[in-house]
Design brief:
CATH class: Alpha Beta
Order of helices and strands: EHEHEEEHEEHEHEHEHHHHH
Strand order of the largest sheet: 1-10-9-2-3-7-6-8
Helix content: 25-40%
CATH superfamily: Vaccinia Virus protein VP39
Number of helices: 11
Number of domains: 1
CATH topology: Rossmann fold
Structural class: alpha/beta
Shape: globular
Largest sheet: 8 strands, mixed
Radius of gyration: 20 Å
Distance between the termini: 43 Å
Number of strands: 10
Length: 308
């Protein structure tokens, strides 16, 4: 079996389970991925083309798809060190009116669910009238416990203040049909690993290399896996030019700041919540701790689709 060092800072082309089984146990600090959603290559709205990947179909029998995802989840669990985490991006789907929720198979894996995050993509992929436009996806923060510690380490205030709803627009004009924005893995890596460097970040469905680029720019090792030689080649080219995306990283890191922690405000007797001093509470109601970006209008959303 190859040594871990043989895989560091490399993109590995092959079947995800076969490649994962070559990695040693308890080696990875953090994993981030978005697998194919099994949308049948035919789920489209009037503005959206079919989602088609190179070298991979997206139309498995649903039961087989879920079992495959459980296998991948469990292999990533095996290679993750105790205390490590896996951020798994998926979405709620419907098939002939039946809801298919990712937690149905995540709950059958070895992982402990720490939090379900909502990714507000701001734009809808399927514009049909059966339901309200679905602009949200899920990001599951999964944890491998250390012994009996099911809680894990606490986030620093500068990271936790970003809330559990992430308003990030997907990448556009991309060679990949479903890329998430660079800010998404940057936010995850920086929130969990902070300013330290040299950890190992894995993406078992790395596509065009968004997670490896984020890891590289934040000073970490990476391993990316994808079955498509075309995507691997694009990811390698992107990694070679990673510095050109540094501004996107800087913009995301600028959001991770807090002027005073809860403990500091409590020690000073200033506003700490609804039970704090009345004057401070009134002031806080007039001055939010941070500003959320304005959502795009429907016209702006449609313009995004016309560009793709």
């Amino acid at each position: 079996m190859p040594e871990l060092s043989d895989h560091l800072d490399r993109l590995l082309c092959g079947d995800v389970l076969e490649v994962l089984r070559t990695l040693p146990a308890d080696a990875v600090d953090l994993s981030i991925t978005s697998p194919p959603y099994n949308k049948g290559e035919n789920k489209k709205g009037w503005l959206v083309k079919n989602v088609q990947y190179t070298h991979s179909g997206d139309r498995m029998a649903e039961a087989a798809y879920q079992e495959w995802q459980i296998e991948v989840l469990n292999e990533v669990y095996r290679v993750t060190r105790p205390g490590g985490a896996f951020f798994y991006n998926h979405k709620i789907r419907w098939e002939r009116g039946v809801l298919l929720h990712p937690y149905a198979w995540i709950s059958r894996s070895h992982w402990t669910l720490r939090q379900e995050l909502i990714w507000d993509r701001k734009i809808a992929a399927n514009l049909r009238g059966w339901r309200f436009w679905q602009v949200d996806e899920r990001i599951y923060w999964l944890q491998k416990p250390v012994g009996e510690d099911w809680i894990g380490e606490e986030l620093e205030s500068r990271h936790a203040l970003l809330t559990s709803i992430w308003r990030l627009t997907p990448e556009r004009n991309s060679a990949h049909p479903a890329p998430f924005p660079l800010a998404l893995p940057v936010r995850i890596i920086y929130s969990l690993l902070g300013d330290r460097q040299g950890s190992l970040v894995l993406d078992p469905f790395c596509g065009i290399g968004t997670t490896p680029v984020a890891a590289k720019l934040l000073g970490h090792h990476f391993i990316g896996i994808d079955i498509s030689p075309e995507y691997i080649a694009l990811a390698q080219a992107r990694l070679a030019q990673a510095e050109s995306e540094r501004d996107k990283v800087t913009q995301e890191l600028a959001l991770h700041r807090v002027t005073k922690t809860f403990a500091e405000r409590k020690a000073e007797g200033t506003f700490t919540g609804r039970y704090g001093p009345a004057a401070s509470r009134a002031a806080a109601e007039q001055a939010p701790l941070w500003e959320e970006p304005e959502p795009e209008s429907q016209a702006q959303q449609l313009a995004m689709f016309e560009e793709t």
